[in-house]
Amino acid sequence: EQLRKFVEAAGEYEAAAKRARFDEDRQRYESLAANAYLLGGRKEDAKRIWTVLAADSKGTVAGEARVRLGEMLATPATDAAVQTKS
How far apart are CA 1 and CA 8, in angstroms? Predict the structure, then answer.
């Protein structure tokens, strides 16, 4: 990531996740992969990973995954939408 090769870093994180012995480690590596994909401009890959992580309610990064998905899916309010709510 420090070399700004985000997509390559994401691939390495995903490989590490596959080799992880514990679920907590796997989920952490997957979250790092999702962040790297997002920084590398591959939003759909990030969304795919965050969606899986968010679905595991007992997962160690489930809360973060739900927040990240919300950030990705949120759309800015338009002036018209704001005025109709007033």
Answer: 8
pLDDT at 75: 79
Structure tokens at 59: 């997962």
Residue 45 has pLDDT above 70, yes or no: yes
Tokens 């994909």 -> residue: 37
How large is the greatest C-alpha to C-alpha distance in the chain, in angstroms? 53
Please report the pLDDT score of residue 77 as a whole number. 74
pLDDT digits (tens, 9 = 90+) for 21-42: 999 999 999 999 999 999 999 9
Q: Give the Cα-Cα-Cα angle 13, 19, 23 (nearest 5 degrees).
A: 90
Q: Which residue has the tokens 């996740």?
A: 17
Asked if residue 40 lies in contact with residue 7, where contact means CB atoms within 8 angstroms, the answer is: yes
Label residue 85 exposed, middle or buried (CB < 10 Å: 0-12, 13-18, 19+).
exposed
Determine which helix (DSSP H) or strand (DSSP E) holds 73, and give its type and residue range: helix 62-73
